[in-house]
């Protein structure tokens, strides 16, 4: 049975506060003008909150999609460190750094996501940078800078976004360059020797040419230390930059060329053992951020993640109703990742790894905006490669180093269209569809070498090959999946302040191959390995109501959804016995379409201007996600058989209840003769019990609440802002992931990773 916990901060307390605001939901964006200065917020004038959830500018309160948006100015005032912090205030959403990484993103929305970032797996939540789909999650956890807004769309978005967005999409939207010279800087100092600096500048070179760029440096010491090497643990050492050039050779043509790069030199993030060493007797450390891990290098490199990309955007306005867009982009990233599973000084279970990804994509869009009909149609193509190699160095009765190579090519194209027809001023219908062809070709190699010194590919040329368990080359592993995914919608404006909508959408994520597959010891036949795992689909019905009251001083949204999830791809790492002695001597990846599930939920967001000085925002969400079928291979009467264990399986990273409540008080306060506004903003964020895997584990995180507080002063002309930000003021220790392999190695593996402790930082921003 799943363990129960005592909740110290009951959900109903936050829920009652939010429901008191009129029971609904609001995207919390703050719009910005072209120059980047904050415009009126959503409370004062909901009409200025513009999002591009349907690939065209629309009023947030009018768009029939569950979307939450955060403006750049709002993120600055709250001292939001990176994208993972946004999940605290978004319904049914989990965003976090993947286990044993600093900048790889694990994202789940409404129960759908992907925890393992290996080649061959693509997330069920799409990550987008200015309409550019990021095929891989490496380097996706970046600090927030140079953004106009961030949009989080919930539910299947396959019609317009495609590429596996069956759970939802996260969109970074960067600022367009202003018509005047704009230079701004930000400095941050804080706990753990935090020191950050961001410089952004743009200027017009002529009436038709503008240039801009940002450079950012993010650094802080570790929350803990490596007690063996003395290195930092949970530190940050990241540099990021972005350049762009915009051209308007004619009033009808807009061109943007952009490039960005990120370099993460943080120390390897190692976990905290929650059990005593089985052989060594090593005790549990008192500080959950400390470690004894001795693996610090992979392929001769310390932990490092580098990512860069470029894009070219062309927009041409044919006439006031018709426009065309072309988006061309390419990206690459490379990660050296030394992962010490046992987190002990001994060589017991270690995985030095290298991940490399590259992609090229091209999209053409045609947008029509008429009085009765509005819509978008287009063509999309992507050519991507995901490559990883790693050693599994494992002590035990049979000390060995297993080399694994996964090389996955993806070529996919799609045609799509989405149109909205207005019957009258109140009633409108929408119809959309996407046809996708997804081709994959893979190479998988798995070899076992004697001893604990690694393999030739990972730096030990003298290693002795014991045997090859799996060897498939390109051409032996290939599959092609085709799917049409429709979407239907209805929207009804019941009054000037209330919009009702209903939609049905189908999401699709292509099949593939597990790069860790092993045909020895896992009961996987060669035929099964060659077939790979099948695509998964989700059918989702959603009902929503978006409302405003009291002259738009109160804005609310409510959404109900019911989804059927089929052929759920269940990736997992299992202990295997490859030599038949009855004891696990290795581990391998086993990915099956074991599951069928039903997912139902409720989402409420609300925002209210209670007085001219006091505003409150909040959200409450509930989700009931359960497997109706979860097949595993078990011996029944000595004969292998498929057994349905759905009653023993859970949805990972999907807390049943979550809530957030934020109150902000603004007070006019001059400083040194300069008029301005002093703001006090405090929040409480609640997450219910969270399972880390599809099964109950001691690493599961009981319900918890985080408290934040920000004090900021902003000058009336928005040129100066100073802030003091406290995060996790209760200093709560909460687990975000971990590894469970109790029978591998001599010490056993039960290792956890944790969210950040209490931190306090001070920021100063100046706009020249």
Structure notes:
- The chain has 768 residues and is mainly beta.
- Helices cover 3% and strands 56% of the residues.
- The chain contains 3 helices and 42 strands.
- It has a 22-stranded antiparallel beta barrel. Strands 3-9-10-7-8 form a 5-stranded mixed β-sheet.
- Mean pLDDT is 88; it is low at 1-48.
- Belongs to the TonB-dependent receptor family.
- This is TonB-dependent receptor.
- Keywords: Cell outer membrane, Ion transport, Iron, Iron transport, Membrane, Receptor, Signal, TonB box, Transmembrane, Transmembrane beta strand, Transport.
- It is a multi-pass membrane protein.
| Helix-residue proportion | under 10%
| Beta-strand share of residues | over 45%
Radius of gyration: 26 Å
- Determine the mean pLDDT: 88
Structural class: mainly beta
N-end to C-end Cα span: 60 Å
Shape: globular
**Low-confidence parts, pLDDT < 50 over ≥5 residues?**
1-48
> Tally of extended strands?
42
Domain TonB-dependent receptor plug: 60-169
Membrane topology: Multi-pass membrane protein
Family: Belongs to the TonB-dependent receptor family.
Motif (TonB C-terminal box): 751-768
């Amino acid at each position: 049975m799943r363990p129960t916990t005592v909740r110290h901060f009951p959900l109903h307390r936050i829920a009652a506060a939010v429901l008191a605001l009129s029971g609904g939901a609001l995207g919390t964006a703050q719009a910005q003008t072209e120059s980047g200065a904050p415009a009126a917020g959503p409370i004062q004038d909901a009409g200025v909150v513009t999002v591009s959830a349907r690939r065209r500018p629309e009023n947030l309160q009018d768009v029939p999609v569950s979307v939450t948006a955060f403006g750049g100015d709002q993120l600055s005032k709250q001292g939001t460190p990176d994208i993972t912090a946004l999940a605290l205030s978004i319904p049914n959403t989990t965003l976090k750094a993947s286990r044993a990484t600093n900048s790889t993103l694990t994202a789940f929305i409404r129960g759908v996501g992907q925890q393992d970032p290996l080649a061959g797996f693509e997330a069920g939540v799409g990550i987008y940078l200015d309409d550019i789909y990021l095929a891989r999650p490496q380097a996706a956890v970046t600090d927030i800078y140079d953004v106009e807004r961030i949009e989080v769309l919930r539910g299947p978005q396959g019609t317009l976004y495609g590429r596996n967005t069956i759970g939802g999409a996260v969109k970074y939207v960067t600022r367009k360059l202003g018509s005047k010279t704009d230079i701004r800087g930000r400095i941050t100092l804080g706990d753990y020797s935090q020191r950050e600096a961001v410089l952004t500048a743009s200027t017009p070179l002529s009436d038709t040419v503008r240039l801009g760029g940002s450079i950012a440096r993010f650094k802080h010491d570790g929350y803990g230390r490596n007690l063996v090497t003395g290195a930092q643990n949970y530190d940050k050492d990241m540099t990021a930059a972005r350049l762009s050039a915009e051209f308007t050779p004619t009033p009808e043509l807009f061109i943007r060329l952009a490039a960005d790069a990120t370099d993460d030199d943080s120390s390897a993030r190692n976990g905290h053992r929650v059990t005593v060493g089985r052989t060594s007797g090593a005790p549990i450390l008192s500080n959950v951020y400390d470690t004894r891990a001795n693996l610090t290098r992979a392929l001769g490199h310390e932990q490092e993640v580098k990512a860069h990309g470029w894009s070219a955007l062309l927009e041409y306005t044919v006439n006031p109703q018709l426009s065309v867009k072309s988006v061309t982009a390419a990206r690459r990233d490379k990660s050296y990742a030394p992962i010490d599973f046992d987190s002990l000084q001994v060589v017991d279970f270690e995985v030095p790894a290298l991940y490399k990804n590259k992609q090229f994509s091209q999209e053409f869009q045609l947008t029509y905006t008429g009085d009765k009909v509005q819509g978008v149609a287009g063509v999309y193509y992507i050519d991507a490669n995901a490559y990883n190699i790693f050693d599994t160095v494992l002590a035990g009765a049979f000390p060995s180093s297993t080399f694994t190579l996964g090389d996955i090519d993806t070529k996919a194209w799609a045609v799509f269209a989405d149109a909205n027809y207005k019957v009258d001023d109140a009633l409108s219908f929408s119809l959309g569809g996407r046809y996708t062809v997804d081709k994959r070709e893979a190479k998988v190699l798995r070899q076992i070498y004697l001893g604990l010194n690694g393999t030739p590919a990972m730096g030990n040329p003298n290693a002795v090959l014991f045997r090859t368990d799996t060897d498939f080359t390109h051409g032996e592993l290939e599959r092609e999946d085709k799917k049409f995914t429709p979407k239907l919608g209805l929207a009804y404006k019941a009054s000037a302040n209330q919009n009702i909508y209903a939609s049905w959408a189908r999401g699709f994520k292509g099949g593939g191959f597990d790069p860790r597959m092993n045909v020895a010891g896992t009961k996987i036949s060669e035929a099964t390995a060659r077939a790979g795992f099948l695509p998964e689909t989700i059918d989702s019905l959603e009902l929503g109501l978006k409302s405003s009251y009291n002259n738009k001083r109160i804005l609310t949204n409510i959404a109900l959804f019911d989804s059927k999830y089929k052929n759920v791809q269940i990736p997992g790492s299992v202990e295997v016995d490859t030599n038949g002695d009855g004891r696990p001597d290795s581990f391998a990846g086993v990915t099956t379409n074991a599951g069928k599930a039903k997912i139902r939920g409720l989402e409420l967001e609300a925002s209210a201007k209670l007085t001219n000085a006091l505003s409150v925002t909040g959200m409450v969400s509930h989700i009931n996600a359960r497997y109706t079928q979860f097949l595993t291979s078990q011996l029944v009467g000595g004969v292998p058989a498929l057994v349905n264990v759905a009653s023993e399986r859970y949805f990972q990273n999907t807390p049943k209840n979550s809530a957030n409540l934020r109150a902000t008080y603004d007070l006019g306060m001059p400083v040194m003769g300069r008029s301005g506004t002093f703001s006090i903003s405090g929040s409480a964020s609640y997450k219910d019990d969270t399972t880390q895997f599809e099964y109950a584990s001691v690493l599961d995180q009981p319900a918890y609440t985080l408290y934040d507080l920000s004090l900021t002063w902003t000058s009336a002309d928005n040129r100066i802002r100073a802030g003091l930000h406290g995060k996790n003021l209760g200093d709560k220790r909460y687990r975000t992931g971990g590894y469970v392999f109790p029978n591998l190695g001599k010490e056993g593996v039960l290792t956890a990773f944790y969210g950040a402790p209490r931190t306090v930082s001070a920021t100063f921003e100046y706009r020249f």
